[in-house]
Amino acid sequence: MSGFPVMTGKKKGSKNASQIEREEFNLALIEPAAFVLLREIAEYLQSQPVKAYVVGGFVRDALLGRETADIDLAVTGDALEIALGLAEALKGTYVLLDSENRVGRVVLASEIPDDRQSTIDISTVTSNLEDDLARRDFAIDAMALDLKELVAGGAVANLIDPHKGRDDLDRGVMRSISEENLSADPVRLLRAVRLAVELGFRIEQKTGKQIRRYADLLAQVPGERVREELIRLFTVSRGGQFLFDLDDLGLLTVLIPELTVTKGVEQPAEHHWDVFKHSVMTVSAVDYLLHQGVWEYPQDDILKVTPWSEECARHFEKPVAGGSSRRTLLKLAALLHDIAKPQTRAIDSKGRMRFLGHSEEGAEIVSHILERLRFSTRETKLVAGVVKYHLRPTQMGQPPSHRAIYRYFRDAGDAGVDILYLSLADHLATRGPGLIPANWRQHTDVVRYVLDEHYKQEKITLPPKLVDGNDLMNIFGLKPGPRLGELLEMVKEAHVTGELTNREEALQYIHNVLTEGKK
Question: Which of 23, 124, 291, 317 has the most crowded Cβ, counting Cβ within 10 A?
Answer without folding.
Answer: 124
